[in-house]
Amino acid sequence: MDINLLSWLSTSLSPLSRLALPGAVAAGVAVGIASHAAAADSAATMKAVRIHDYGDASKLVFEDAPKPSPAKGEMLVKVQAAGVNPVDWKIRSGLFRGGLDFTMPATLGFDIAGEVAEVGEGVKKFEKGDKVFAYLALNRGGGYAEYAIVKENEAAAMPKELDFVKAAATPLTALTAWQCLFDVAKLDKGQTALVHAGAGGVGHFAVQLAKWKGAKVIATASAGNIEFVKSLGADEVVDYKSVRFEDVVKDVDVVLDTVGDDTTNRSAAVLRRGGILVSIAGDPDPAKFAERGVRVATHLVEPNGEQLARIAKLIESGGVKPHVSQQLPLKDAAKAHQQSESGRTRGKIVLVVG
Protein backbone atom coordinates (compact mmCIF):
# COMPACT_ATOMS: atom_id res chain seq x y z
CA MET A 1 0.00 0.00 0.00
CA ASP A 2 1.16 3.53 -0.71
CA ILE A 3 2.48 4.97 2.59
CA ASN A 4 0.87 8.36 2.06
CA LEU A 5 -2.44 6.64 1.41
CA LEU A 6 -2.12 4.54 4.56
CA SER A 7 -1.41 7.72 6.52
CA TRP A 8 -4.55 9.28 5.05
CA LEU A 9 -6.57 6.26 6.10
CA SER A 10 -5.20 6.42 9.61
CA THR A 11 -5.89 10.11 10.09
CA SER A 12 -8.96 10.82 7.98
CA LEU A 13 -11.26 7.94 8.92
CA SER A 14 -12.54 7.35 12.43
CA PRO A 15 -11.32 4.07 13.97
CA LEU A 16 -14.80 2.57 13.67
CA SER A 17 -15.09 3.53 10.02
CA ARG A 18 -11.72 2.06 9.22
CA LEU A 19 -12.37 -1.19 11.02
CA ALA A 20 -15.86 -1.64 9.66
CA LEU A 21 -14.37 -2.68 6.34
CA PRO A 22 -14.81 -6.50 6.48
CA GLY A 23 -11.65 -8.37 5.56
CA ALA A 24 -9.89 -5.04 6.31
CA VAL A 25 -10.17 -4.26 2.65
CA ALA A 26 -9.18 -0.65 2.72
CA ALA A 27 -5.92 -0.98 0.80
CA GLY A 28 -5.56 1.82 -1.71
CA VAL A 29 -8.61 3.89 -0.67
CA ALA A 30 -8.78 7.52 -1.74
CA VAL A 31 -11.34 10.24 -0.99
CA GLY A 32 -12.56 10.67 -4.53
CA ILE A 33 -12.54 7.15 -5.91
CA ALA A 34 -13.06 7.25 -9.67
CA SER A 35 -15.37 4.87 -11.51
CA HIS A 36 -12.19 3.83 -13.30
CA ALA A 37 -8.97 5.77 -13.62
CA ALA A 38 -7.62 3.72 -16.52
CA ALA A 39 -7.80 5.17 -20.00
CA ALA A 40 -10.63 3.73 -22.05
CA ASP A 41 -11.37 3.42 -25.74
CA SER A 42 -14.59 5.39 -26.07
CA ALA A 43 -15.69 3.17 -28.96
CA ALA A 44 -15.29 -0.08 -27.02
CA THR A 45 -17.84 -1.18 -24.45
CA MET A 46 -18.38 -4.14 -22.14
CA LYS A 47 -21.06 -5.37 -19.77
CA ALA A 48 -20.63 -4.36 -16.14
CA VAL A 49 -22.60 -3.97 -12.94
CA ARG A 50 -22.38 -0.38 -11.71
CA ILE A 51 -23.96 1.91 -9.17
CA HIS A 52 -25.06 5.44 -10.06
CA ASP A 53 -25.95 6.32 -6.48
CA TYR A 54 -25.74 4.83 -3.01
CA GLY A 55 -28.58 2.73 -1.65
CA ASP A 56 -29.97 -0.79 -1.45
CA ALA A 57 -29.21 -3.67 -3.80
CA SER A 58 -31.60 -2.29 -6.43
CA LYS A 59 -28.96 0.37 -7.16
CA LEU A 60 -26.81 -2.27 -8.88
CA VAL A 61 -27.35 -1.87 -12.64
CA PHE A 62 -26.24 -4.38 -15.29
CA GLU A 63 -25.36 -2.21 -18.27
CA ASP A 64 -22.87 -1.23 -20.95
CA ALA A 65 -19.74 0.52 -19.70
CA PRO A 66 -16.50 1.75 -21.31
CA LYS A 67 -13.90 -0.97 -21.76
CA PRO A 68 -10.67 0.11 -20.04
CA SER A 69 -7.16 0.02 -21.48
CA PRO A 70 -4.05 -0.89 -19.46
CA ALA A 71 -1.45 1.76 -18.57
CA LYS A 72 2.19 1.12 -17.73
CA GLY A 73 2.55 -1.77 -15.28
CA GLU A 74 -1.06 -2.87 -15.77
CA MET A 75 -2.90 -5.68 -17.52
CA LEU A 76 -6.35 -5.89 -19.03
CA VAL A 77 -7.90 -9.11 -17.76
CA LYS A 78 -10.94 -10.77 -19.27
CA VAL A 79 -12.85 -11.53 -16.09
CA GLN A 80 -14.34 -15.00 -15.80
CA ALA A 81 -15.50 -14.74 -12.20
CA ALA A 82 -15.64 -12.10 -9.45
CA GLY A 83 -15.85 -12.69 -5.72
CA VAL A 84 -18.42 -10.91 -3.55
CA ASN A 85 -17.30 -9.53 -0.18
CA PRO A 86 -19.22 -7.70 2.57
CA VAL A 87 -17.25 -4.54 1.82
CA ASP A 88 -18.95 -4.44 -1.59
CA TRP A 89 -22.44 -3.94 -0.21
CA LYS A 90 -21.25 -1.71 2.61
CA ILE A 91 -19.75 0.65 0.05
CA ARG A 92 -22.86 0.36 -2.14
CA SER A 93 -25.09 1.28 0.78
CA GLY A 94 -23.11 4.46 1.42
CA LEU A 95 -21.91 3.34 4.85
CA PHE A 96 -18.55 5.03 4.34
CA ARG A 97 -19.73 8.26 2.72
CA GLY A 98 -17.71 11.21 3.91
CA GLY A 99 -14.64 9.01 4.15
CA LEU A 100 -14.89 6.92 0.99
CA ASP A 101 -16.69 8.90 -1.70
CA PHE A 102 -16.98 7.28 -5.10
CA THR A 103 -17.23 9.07 -8.43
CA MET A 104 -20.37 7.77 -10.10
CA PRO A 105 -21.05 5.58 -11.93
CA ALA A 106 -18.76 3.19 -10.06
CA THR A 107 -17.95 -0.47 -10.64
CA LEU A 108 -17.47 -2.47 -7.45
CA GLY A 109 -15.75 -5.85 -7.11
CA PHE A 110 -12.26 -6.48 -5.73
CA ASP A 111 -11.69 -10.24 -6.26
CA ILE A 112 -11.26 -11.49 -9.83
CA ALA A 113 -10.05 -14.48 -11.81
CA GLY A 114 -9.64 -14.51 -15.55
CA GLU A 115 -7.30 -14.47 -18.54
CA VAL A 116 -4.86 -11.75 -19.52
CA ALA A 117 -6.23 -10.07 -22.64
CA GLU A 118 -3.62 -7.32 -23.00
CA VAL A 119 -0.47 -6.20 -21.18
CA GLY A 120 0.68 -2.64 -20.71
CA GLU A 121 4.21 -1.34 -21.05
CA GLY A 122 6.66 -2.81 -18.57
CA VAL A 123 4.68 -5.91 -17.59
CA LYS A 124 7.13 -8.82 -17.45
CA LYS A 125 5.61 -11.56 -15.27
CA PHE A 126 2.54 -12.23 -17.39
CA GLU A 127 1.56 -12.39 -21.03
CA LYS A 128 -1.60 -12.60 -23.07
CA GLY A 129 -3.55 -15.80 -22.36
CA ASP A 130 -2.20 -16.36 -18.84
CA LYS A 131 -4.77 -17.34 -16.22
CA VAL A 132 -4.49 -15.05 -13.20
CA PHE A 133 -6.31 -14.13 -10.01
CA ALA A 134 -5.98 -10.93 -8.00
CA TYR A 135 -7.25 -8.67 -5.25
CA LEU A 136 -7.88 -5.24 -6.79
CA ALA A 137 -7.06 -2.28 -4.57
CA LEU A 138 -10.08 -0.44 -3.29
CA ASN A 139 -9.21 2.81 -5.04
CA ARG A 140 -9.94 1.08 -8.35
CA GLY A 141 -12.14 -1.99 -7.95
CA GLY A 142 -13.79 -2.82 -11.24
CA GLY A 143 -14.24 -6.57 -10.81
CA TYR A 144 -17.97 -6.67 -11.61
CA ALA A 145 -17.30 -6.41 -15.33
CA GLU A 146 -16.28 -8.37 -18.41
CA TYR A 147 -12.85 -6.73 -18.31
CA ALA A 148 -10.84 -5.28 -15.43
CA ILE A 149 -7.53 -3.51 -14.96
CA VAL A 150 -5.07 -5.43 -12.79
CA LYS A 151 -1.67 -4.11 -11.71
CA GLU A 152 1.13 -6.59 -12.28
CA ASN A 153 2.08 -6.64 -8.58
CA GLU A 154 -1.50 -7.49 -7.54
CA ALA A 155 -1.77 -10.68 -9.58
CA ALA A 156 -0.57 -14.26 -9.34
CA ALA A 157 -0.89 -17.25 -11.61
CA MET A 158 -4.07 -19.17 -10.87
CA PRO A 159 -3.62 -22.45 -8.99
CA LYS A 160 -3.82 -25.29 -11.53
CA GLU A 161 -6.28 -27.17 -9.32
CA LEU A 162 -8.88 -24.39 -9.29
CA ASP A 163 -11.52 -23.31 -11.75
CA PHE A 164 -12.21 -19.59 -12.21
CA VAL A 165 -15.03 -19.57 -9.66
CA LYS A 166 -12.97 -20.94 -6.78
CA ALA A 167 -10.00 -18.82 -7.80
CA ALA A 168 -12.13 -15.67 -7.65
CA ALA A 169 -13.25 -16.66 -4.14
CA THR A 170 -9.70 -16.57 -2.82
CA PRO A 171 -7.62 -13.37 -3.06
CA LEU A 172 -9.06 -10.78 -0.66
CA THR A 173 -10.07 -13.13 2.12
CA ALA A 174 -7.04 -15.42 1.92
CA LEU A 175 -4.68 -12.43 1.90
CA THR A 176 -6.51 -10.95 4.88
CA ALA A 177 -6.08 -14.17 6.85
CA TRP A 178 -2.43 -14.52 5.82
CA GLN A 179 -1.46 -10.97 6.71
CA CYS A 180 -3.31 -10.92 10.02
CA LEU A 181 -1.98 -14.26 11.23
CA PHE A 182 1.57 -14.18 9.93
CA ASP A 183 2.58 -10.57 9.22
CA VAL A 184 0.86 -8.94 12.20
CA ALA A 185 0.37 -11.63 14.87
CA LYS A 186 3.47 -13.67 13.93
CA LEU A 187 1.60 -16.93 14.60
CA ASP A 188 4.00 -19.84 14.85
CA LYS A 189 4.02 -23.61 15.23
CA GLY A 190 2.84 -24.81 18.63
CA GLN A 191 0.85 -21.69 19.46
CA THR A 192 -2.92 -21.51 19.87
CA ALA A 193 -5.16 -19.35 17.67
CA LEU A 194 -8.82 -18.45 18.12
CA VAL A 195 -10.58 -17.57 14.85
CA HIS A 196 -13.94 -15.86 15.21
CA ALA A 197 -16.53 -16.79 12.55
CA GLY A 198 -14.54 -19.75 11.31
CA ALA A 199 -17.06 -20.54 8.58
CA GLY A 200 -16.94 -17.10 6.99
CA GLY A 201 -14.94 -15.78 4.07
CA VAL A 202 -11.85 -14.76 6.03
CA GLY A 203 -12.46 -17.26 8.81
CA HIS A 204 -12.47 -20.40 6.68
CA PHE A 205 -9.10 -19.45 5.21
CA ALA A 206 -7.70 -18.46 8.61
CA VAL A 207 -8.58 -21.83 10.14
CA GLN A 208 -6.78 -23.65 7.33
CA LEU A 209 -3.74 -21.38 7.31
CA ALA A 210 -3.28 -21.52 11.08
CA LYS A 211 -3.51 -25.33 10.98
CA TRP A 212 -0.99 -25.46 8.11
CA LYS A 213 1.38 -23.38 10.25
CA GLY A 214 1.21 -26.00 13.00
CA ALA A 215 -0.93 -24.08 15.48
CA LYS A 216 -3.74 -25.42 17.60
CA VAL A 217 -6.90 -23.90 16.14
CA ILE A 218 -10.06 -22.98 18.00
CA ALA A 219 -12.92 -21.36 16.10
CA THR A 220 -16.36 -19.96 16.81
CA ALA A 221 -19.30 -20.86 14.59
CA SER A 222 -23.03 -21.46 14.66
CA ALA A 223 -24.26 -24.98 15.39
CA GLY A 224 -24.99 -25.61 11.72
CA ASN A 225 -21.40 -24.84 10.75
CA ILE A 226 -19.54 -26.78 13.43
CA GLU A 227 -18.86 -29.86 11.31
CA PHE A 228 -17.85 -27.71 8.34
CA VAL A 229 -15.30 -25.80 10.42
CA LYS A 230 -13.95 -29.03 11.89
CA SER A 231 -13.48 -30.32 8.34
CA LEU A 232 -11.24 -27.31 7.69
CA GLY A 233 -8.91 -28.48 10.45
CA ALA A 234 -10.17 -26.75 13.59
CA ASP A 235 -9.26 -28.68 16.74
CA GLU A 236 -12.16 -27.18 18.69
CA VAL A 237 -15.29 -25.32 17.58
CA VAL A 238 -17.39 -23.26 19.99
CA ASP A 239 -21.06 -22.70 19.26
CA TYR A 240 -21.15 -18.99 20.02
CA LYS A 241 -24.96 -18.95 20.23
CA SER A 242 -25.17 -21.45 23.07
CA VAL A 243 -22.08 -20.56 25.12
CA ARG A 244 -19.97 -17.49 25.75
CA PHE A 245 -16.65 -18.28 24.14
CA GLU A 246 -14.66 -16.56 26.94
CA ASP A 247 -16.11 -19.05 29.42
CA VAL A 248 -14.58 -22.05 27.64
CA VAL A 249 -11.50 -20.70 25.83
CA LYS A 250 -8.35 -19.70 27.73
CA ASP A 251 -4.61 -19.03 27.22
CA VAL A 252 -4.78 -18.24 23.51
CA ASP A 253 -1.74 -16.72 21.78
CA VAL A 254 -3.57 -15.12 18.85
CA VAL A 255 -7.17 -14.04 18.32
CA LEU A 256 -8.36 -13.13 14.83
CA ASP A 257 -11.49 -11.01 15.20
CA THR A 258 -13.61 -10.92 12.04
CA VAL A 259 -16.86 -10.11 13.86
CA GLY A 260 -16.50 -6.84 15.75
CA ASP A 261 -19.13 -5.46 18.14
CA ASP A 262 -18.72 -6.80 21.68
CA THR A 263 -16.82 -9.86 20.42
CA THR A 264 -13.73 -7.69 20.04
CA ASN A 265 -13.37 -6.54 23.64
CA ARG A 266 -14.69 -9.79 25.15
CA SER A 267 -11.78 -11.53 23.43
CA ALA A 268 -9.28 -9.88 25.79
CA ALA A 269 -10.26 -12.46 28.43
CA VAL A 270 -9.11 -15.45 26.37
CA LEU A 271 -5.59 -14.24 25.63
CA ARG A 272 -2.58 -15.33 27.62
CA ARG A 273 -0.27 -12.59 28.87
CA GLY A 274 1.73 -11.31 25.91
CA GLY A 275 -0.84 -12.57 23.40
CA ILE A 276 -2.33 -10.48 20.63
CA LEU A 277 -5.75 -9.77 19.12
CA VAL A 278 -5.84 -8.70 15.48
CA SER A 279 -9.16 -7.18 14.46
CA ILE A 280 -10.45 -6.48 10.97
CA ALA A 281 -13.95 -5.54 12.07
CA GLY A 282 -13.99 -4.16 15.60
CA ASP A 283 -12.98 -1.07 17.54
CA PRO A 284 -10.78 -2.41 20.35
CA ASP A 285 -10.57 -0.62 23.69
CA PRO A 286 -6.78 -0.37 24.26
CA ALA A 287 -7.19 0.00 28.02
CA LYS A 288 -9.12 -3.26 28.32
CA PHE A 289 -6.30 -5.14 26.62
CA ALA A 290 -3.44 -3.29 28.31
CA GLU A 291 -4.76 -4.07 31.79
CA ARG A 292 -4.51 -7.78 30.99
CA GLY A 293 -0.99 -7.49 29.58
CA VAL A 294 -2.03 -8.36 26.03
CA ARG A 295 -1.61 -6.55 22.75
CA VAL A 296 -4.13 -5.40 20.18
CA ALA A 297 -3.76 -4.49 16.52
CA THR A 298 -5.97 -3.69 13.56
CA HIS A 299 -5.18 -4.50 9.97
CA LEU A 300 -6.17 -3.31 6.51
CA VAL A 301 -5.41 -5.91 3.86
CA GLU A 302 -3.01 -4.93 1.08
CA PRO A 303 -2.88 -6.32 -2.47
CA ASN A 304 0.19 -8.54 -2.67
CA GLY A 305 0.88 -10.72 -5.69
CA GLU A 306 3.85 -12.46 -4.05
CA GLN A 307 1.82 -13.57 -1.04
CA LEU A 308 -1.01 -14.61 -3.33
CA ALA A 309 1.46 -16.78 -5.26
CA ARG A 310 2.45 -18.49 -1.99
CA ILE A 311 -1.20 -19.12 -1.21
CA ALA A 312 -1.60 -20.57 -4.71
CA LYS A 313 1.18 -23.05 -3.97
CA LEU A 314 -0.59 -24.08 -0.77
CA ILE A 315 -3.79 -24.64 -2.71
CA GLU A 316 -1.93 -26.75 -5.26
CA SER A 317 -0.43 -28.88 -2.48
CA GLY A 318 -3.85 -29.39 -0.88
CA GLY A 319 -3.06 -27.34 2.22
CA VAL A 320 -5.82 -24.80 1.62
CA LYS A 321 -9.17 -25.05 -0.17
CA PRO A 322 -11.55 -22.18 -0.92
CA HIS A 323 -15.22 -22.87 -0.29
CA VAL A 324 -17.91 -21.38 -2.52
CA SER A 325 -21.42 -21.56 -1.14
CA GLN A 326 -23.18 -19.91 -4.06
CA GLN A 327 -22.46 -18.78 -7.61
CA LEU A 328 -24.67 -16.47 -9.64
CA PRO A 329 -24.44 -14.81 -13.05
CA LEU A 330 -23.05 -11.25 -13.11
CA LYS A 331 -26.47 -9.80 -13.89
CA ASP A 332 -27.72 -11.16 -10.54
CA ALA A 333 -25.25 -9.16 -8.46
CA ALA A 334 -28.16 -7.71 -6.47
CA LYS A 335 -29.16 -11.20 -5.30
CA ALA A 336 -25.55 -11.87 -4.32
CA HIS A 337 -25.45 -8.69 -2.25
CA GLN A 338 -28.70 -9.56 -0.52
CA GLN A 339 -27.34 -12.97 0.41
CA SER A 340 -24.07 -11.48 1.70
CA GLU A 341 -26.00 -8.93 3.75
CA SER A 342 -27.90 -11.73 5.48
CA GLY A 343 -24.71 -12.67 7.35
CA ARG A 344 -25.39 -16.36 6.75
CA THR A 345 -22.84 -17.12 4.04
CA ARG A 346 -20.55 -20.11 4.43
CA GLY A 347 -17.28 -19.34 2.65
CA LYS A 348 -17.79 -17.11 -0.38
CA ILE A 349 -20.32 -16.01 -3.00
CA VAL A 350 -19.02 -15.65 -6.55
CA LEU A 351 -20.41 -13.96 -9.67
CA VAL A 352 -19.83 -15.82 -12.94
CA VAL A 353 -18.89 -13.37 -15.66
CA GLY A 354 -17.37 -15.24 -18.59
Any key phrases for this structure?
2 domains; 12 helices; 354 residues; alpha/beta; Quinone Oxidoreductase, Chain A, domain 1; 29% strand; six-stranded parallel sheet; 27% helix; Rossmann fold; disordered N terminus; globular
Q: Which CATH class of the largest domain applies here?
A: Alpha Beta
What is the overall shape? globular
Strand fraction equals 25-35%
The CATH topology annotation of the largest domain reads as: Quinone Oxidoreductase, Chain A, domain 1
Low-confidence residue ranges: 1-38
Written as H for each helix and E for each strand, in order along the chain, the element string is HHEEEEHEEEEEEHHEHEHEHEHEHEHEHE
Distance between the termini: 30 Å
Share of helix, binned: 25-40%
Architecture overview:
With 354 residues, the protein is α/β, with parallel strands linked by helices. The chain is built from twelve helices and 18 strands. It has helices spanning 3-12, 15-19, 86-92, 164-168, 171-184, 201-213, 226-231, 245-248, 262-266, 286-290, 305-317, 333-341; strands spanning 32-33, 40-51, 60-68, 74-84, 101-102, 106-107, 111-119, 131-135, 147-151, 155-157, 192-195, 216-221, 236-239, 252-257, 271-279, 295-298, 324-329, 348-352. The chain is globular, with a radius of gyration of 19 Å. Residues 1-38 have low confidence and may be disordered.
